[in-house]
Amino acid sequence: MLTNLEHIGVAVQDLEAATELYTVLLGQEPYKREHVASEAVDTVFFQVGGSKVELLAGTSPDSAISKYLTKKPEGIHHMAFEVSDIRAEMARLREAGFVLLNEEPKRGADNKLVCFVHPKSANGVLVELCQSI
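^ that's the sequence the OP posted. Answer follows.
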């Protein structure tokens, strides 16, 4: 079951410039910076109430974020929802007809297991499921 909006992911070209902008916009410094080698991205997280904003920048032309930014402008990339049992939620969504981009959950940023739901099966929105490890 989806328990809350965990974060909104924002794809950016220049992580440092975006971090400065969001620091002013949100009136606070980020609480975490992280490199996720498996996804070839650098991330910056801001806590906003009970949710977060994640800035994502590709570190390689082959990363999903870099490829995304060749087709679309900077902006909202995905919505992430916290789940208590990611494997059960993946099975529920598969059974309901959603297309998942992962067969198994993988380790993501911010100490989470993650899985993505294909945008074509979610009204054009990339949805991330995440479970704290």
